[in-house]
TrEMBL record:
<comment type="similarity">
    <text>Belongs to the helicase family. PriA subfamily.</text>
</comment>
<feature type="binding site">
    <location>
        <position position="491"/>
    </location>
    <ligand>
        <name>Zn(2+) 2</name>
    </ligand>
</feature>
<keyword id="KW-0547">Nucleotide-binding</keyword>
<feature type="binding site">
    <location>
        <position position="504"/>
    </location>
    <ligand>
        <name>Zn(2+) 1</name>
    </ligand>
</feature>
<dbReference type="Pfam" id="PF17764">
    <property type="entry name" value="PriA_3primeBD"/>
</dbReference>
<feature type="binding site">
    <location>
        <position position="467"/>
    </location>
    <ligand>
        <name>Zn(2+) 1</name>
    </ligand>
</feature>
<dbReference type="GO" id="GO:0006269">
    <property type="term" value="P:DNA replication, synthesis of primer"/>
</dbReference>
<feature type="domain" description="Helicase C-terminal">
    <location>
        <begin position="499"/>
        <end position="653"/>
    </location>
</feature>
<dbReference type="InterPro" id="IPR014001">
    <property type="entry name" value="Helicase_ATP-bd"/>
</dbReference>
<feature type="binding site">
    <location>
        <position position="473"/>
    </location>
    <ligand>
        <name>Zn(2+) 2</name>
    </ligand>
</feature>
<dbReference type="GO" id="GO:0008270">
    <property type="term" value="F:zinc ion binding"/>
</dbReference>
<dbReference type="InterPro" id="IPR001650">
    <property type="entry name" value="Helicase_C-like"/>
</dbReference>
<keyword id="KW-0378">Hydrolase</keyword>
<dbReference type="GO" id="GO:0016787">
    <property type="term" value="F:hydrolase activity"/>
</dbReference>
<feature type="binding site">
    <location>
        <position position="476"/>
    </location>
    <ligand>
        <name>Zn(2+) 2</name>
    </ligand>
</feature>
<dbReference type="GO" id="GO:0003677">
    <property type="term" value="F:DNA binding"/>
</dbReference>
<dbReference type="GO" id="GO:0043138">
    <property type="term" value="F:3'-5' DNA helicase activity"/>
</dbReference>
Length: 757
């Protein structure tokens, strides 16, 4: 019985809030349950009890209104992980709560169980004799008789010690009965009115298992896979984290499946993290075929009600044994986690950008595993430099698979110099003659092609041919992308749309042209060049709805489409049988990105896209188009020289003080007024420099210095390994406080991005 509680609220404030508990509710408050509390002037808010106690605070506190749960909805481990997230990534605990709980658990009454109308036999009829009486009554009502008899054949009661139990063993829904008896609802209503059947509502789960899964046996591993499996298990004896570095199509997923089975046999739960929803479609189908409804899926495209049900199931006595999910699944409750698999562990989308907490799901998952005593397996054909380095230095175990399953050869990569072809006027739009002839041949052979272009929309930029004017977003410091299908210009930073101008507002010229090729324009061009081909496009614009990915992927996989055009989405772990050609239309857009990780990301992207070629049957072909064929990174992609690439990269990172040798923390300041944010950033920079000296770079304008009407400044902290990071965080917090205390900067937003990508 506690009279006070400290409550965590989903607000970006660095504090818990204390409330008093009226005597009637004192028996039901407990750490981990939700309460409804007054907040601010007239608001109520759902919060999580962190501590129940009897210490009367020195200030006035208000009563809570309600306790929402009759048992706790989060585990202690979760609270521990959340605490770590808020501490390490320097975001408010309320932000972590906000990110972790599905909306339905944060809003009062938002979650309502879904129900189904059922029918039961009236209690007084539940005996052999009763049923005969009923049938007798219906002798002259033919339709009712038929429906009632049908109902009797469908339902069933158990008899316990001669007496019929109250609850039917087999429940019959109205819909089922109407279907089976071919009767109308009017007929059923008659049966209810005559008190033969009693209607009731049954709660049903929203969780869709995709029908009765057709369970398959697990495929036996081949020799190389078995050896890798054994090495992983052996490595787990000594290390908590193991990196499985296996080329594309080496059969890593099959190894995961064997590891999952092994964990389930030990009654452990498994968390299988994937970077993006695009991947969950195929992997889900593969896992579902083996594990059926022991598998639960959790990601942001699921409705809130579904996510609430999964959450509740995880807290129930029989939770899902395997959870497959994207980033946020790491925040779910687990009670007996034994294994975490992080597939495509190099993917940058594991890192949350905005809003806070800006956490990396890989780090969070490794931390969660450490807290629960589970093991973590990282898998990739192109590991992140961080994980590669951790393996190299012995912090992680390391297992390698160098051959593709079934001895299929790695794809043959041909580099095409588009600068030279452009000079000789031999390019056809974004296509070299070689790429076109390869696509032609693939189509003639009944094979498929994937074309990768890293820009969505029609033309990434519009330009006046007379004066060079280009339309820019009014709220952001970027040029607008032309979307032809929408007939609009769109800002890819804030989503704002604009009409396409007919004349240049600068010089009045009508000669406005699009520059560059987005996926939409590539699609147009492909349809023009190969009118008989069935073409599909996969990018952010074509996959906004929940089932869009699935349809695109299933269509391509069943060969209902011939050519798939897409952004980086097509590079992700997809497994198709008949892709004989992959075209990388323009490698330079990735290589020229102004970021120290540009080459790392470009290498991984190219290697991954290339890996989609020739996965079954014959050797695949990759055409890599670039204006800079002489770059070493291009040669390293061609030879799949991962080791060479990483050792060059490590040398460079050491030289220029970048990760994994140095930790980076970015400090951002945001404000509507450019002058204000500029002065604030200078002040913050000076303050940080007084503490951290030469580790501080900036402030500078980031490459996009204005987003959604907010001007941005960035300060970079490079911290050597071994520095006391707890202390660093304390000082950064002090710096932020000092800035916000200054009258001039009160409305400046200051936030941190720890280990940015
Ligand atoms: P990766 O995850 O390394 O890209 P996959 O697990 O997707 O590789 O395997 C590539 C293809 O080879 C898939 O179609 C998969 O079904 C098949 N495959 C891999 N291992 C086996 C196995 N042991 N038995 C049968 N098929 C396998
Ligand atoms: Zn102009
Ligand atoms: Zn904008």
């Amino acid at each position: 019985m506690s009279s006070y509680i400290d409550v965590l609220l989903p607000v970006p404030l660095d504090a818990l809030f204390t409330y008093s508990v009226p005597p009637s509710l004192q028996g039901s408050v407990e750490r981990g349950r939700r309460v409804l509390v007054p907040f601010g002037r007239n608001k109520t808010c759902v919060g999580l009890v962190m501590k129940a106690h009897d210490t009367k605070p020195e200030f006035d506190v208000k009563d809570i209104k309600l306790v929402l749960d009759d048992s706790r909805i989060v585990t202690d481990i979760q609270l521990k992980l959340w605490h770590w997230l808020s501490d390490y990534y320097m975001s408010a605990p309320g932000d972590v709560l906000q990110a972790a709980l599905p909306g339905g658990l944060k809003a009062v009454d938002a979650y309502r169980p879904k129900t189904e109308q059922c029918l039961a036999l009236a209690p007084e009829l539940r005996s052999e004799r009763g049923m005969h009486v009923a049938l007798d009554m219906l002798k002259r009502a033919d339709r009712q008789y038929k429906a009632f008899a049908c109902f009797l054949s469908m339902t069933r009661w158990d008899t316990i010690e001669g007496a019929t139990t109250h609850e039917p063993v087999v429940e019959v829904t109205r819909d089922e009965l109407m279907n089976s008896a071919h009767c109308t609802s009017a007929t059923l209503k008659n049966l209810v009115d005559r008190k033969l059947l009693v209607p009731y509502e049954r709660e049903v789960g929203r969780l869709n298992h995709g029908g009765e899964p057709h369970l398959e046996n697990i495929k036996p591993l081949n020799e190389a896979q078995q050896e890798a499996y054994n090495k992983i298990m052996f490595s787990f004896l000594k290390k908590n984290v193991v990196l499985l570095h296996g080329v594309t199509s080496s059969g890593k997923t099959e190894i995961y499946i064997h590891l999952i089975r092994q964990a389930l046999e030990k009654k452990q739960q498994v968390l299988y993290l994937l970077p993006e929803i695009a991947l969950t479609v195929q992997i889900r189908q593969r896992l579902q075929r083996v594990f059926g409804d022991r598998l639960g899926i959790y990601h942001s495209k699921y409705s809130d009600a579904e996510r609430v049900e999964i959450w509740r199931k995880q807290m129930s006595p029989n939770p899902y044994e395997v959870i497959l999910g994207a980033r946020s699944a790491v925040l779910l409750p687990f009670t007996r986690l034994g294994l975490v698999i992080i597939d495509e562990e190099h993917e940058t989308s594991f890192k949350q950008q905005d809003p806070a907490p800006r956490y990396h799901a890989r780090s969070a998952a490794i931390m969660l595993a450490a807290m629960t005593g589970a093991k973590t397996l990282l898998g990739s054909a192109t590991p992140s430099l961080e994980s590669w380095n951790n393996a190299r230095t012995g912090k992680y175990g390391y297992v390698r698979l160098d051959k593709r399953y079934n001895d299929i050869q790695m794809p043959e990569i041909t580099v095409v110099d588009i600068k030279d072809l452009q000079r000789r006027k031999m390019m056809n739009g974004p296509f070299s003659p070689l790429l076109l002839s390869c696509i032609r041949r693939a189509l003639d052979n009944g094979e498929q092609a994937i074309l990768f272009q890293n820009r969505r929309g029609f033309a990434p930029m519009i330009e006046c041919r007379e004066c060079g004017w280009t339309p820019r977003c009014e709220s952001c410091d970027v040029s607008l992308t032309y979307h032809k299908a929408l007939g609009q210009l769109t800002c890819h930073y804030c989503g704002r749309t604009y009409a396409v101008p007919e004349v240049c507002p600068c010089c009045g010229s009508r000669d406005l042209r699009g520059r560059g090729y987005g996926t939409e324009k590539v699609e147009d061009k492909v349809m023009e060049l190969f009118p008989e081909a069935r073409v599909a496009r996969m990018d952010l614009d074509t996959t906004r709805t929940r089932n869009a990915y699935e349809r695109l992927i299933n269509d391509f996989s069943a060969h209902r489409t011939d050519i798939l055009i897409g952004t980086q989405m097509v590079s992700k772990g997809l497994d198709f049988d008949r892709v004989s050609v992959v075209g990388i239309l323009n490698a330079d857009s990735m290589l020229n990105y102004p970021d120290f990780r540009a080459y790392e990301h470009a290498f991984m992207m190219m290697a991954q896209v290339a890996g989609r070629a020739g996965r079954k049957g014959k050797r695949g072909l990759v055409i890599l188009q670039t204006k800079s064929p002489e770059l070493p990174v291009i040669t390293q992609v061609v030879h799949n020289d991962v080791d060479g690439f990483y050792s060059d990269l490590l040398e460079e990172r050491q030289l220029f003080h970048y990760p994994p040798f140095f930790h980076i923390v970015n400090v951002y300041l945001r404000h509507k007024e450019n002058a204000v944010v500029s002065t604030a950033a200078d002040a913050m920079g000076a303050l940080l420099r007084s503490w951290f000296g030469g580790r501080v770079l900036g402030p500078d304008k980031p490459s996009v210095a204005k987003v959604k009407a907010m001007n941005i400044r960035k300060i970079v902290l490079k911290l050597e390994n071994g520095i006391d990071r707890d202390k660093v965080r304390v000082y950064l917090g002090k710096g932020k406080e000092a800035i916000l205390r200054d009258q001039r900067f009160r409305s400046v937003q200051v936030y941190f991005d720890v280990d940015p990508l």
